[in-house]
């Protein structure tokens, strides 16, 4: 029974032709396997293999302390200009110290920014209340 296909000349019946294995880069250049490295050490000397090391990182993530910039700006504009400006300066100092890694200095500047801003806010509120009382008394 014929299938109508012609057989190729290099086809064998049950014989399977595999492609030859690719030579390594060294074999293709030189023609043989590279020599194996087998070091010999002088008497009394031994080879020391490096041991695996464990590295422990103690870095802890630290958040920037609150700089109270919004409070200092509010105090500067609406309440007490001198203490608000000092609060703004301390607020900027918090950011700069934290950026350079001075965490303790940033926390100290944060406390000072809060103190000056709250002092300016209290002085501004007291001044506003006194102004309102003075206006009411003067009008009466």
TrEMBL record:
A single GO cellular-component term on record: membrane
Ranges where the record places region Disordered: 1-44
Pfam families in alphabetical order: CD225 (PF04505)
Positions of transmembrane segments: 68-89, 118-139
Record keyword Transmembrane helix present: yes
Principal location class: membrane
Protein localization: Membrane
Record-linked InterPro entries: CD225/Dispanin (IPR051423), CD225/Dispanin_fam (IPR007593)
Keyword vocabulary terms for this entry: Membrane, Transmembrane, Transmembrane helix
Homology family: Belongs to the CD225/Dispanin family.
Name of the molecule in the record: Interferon-induced transmembrane protein
Species annotation: Patiria miniata (Bat star)
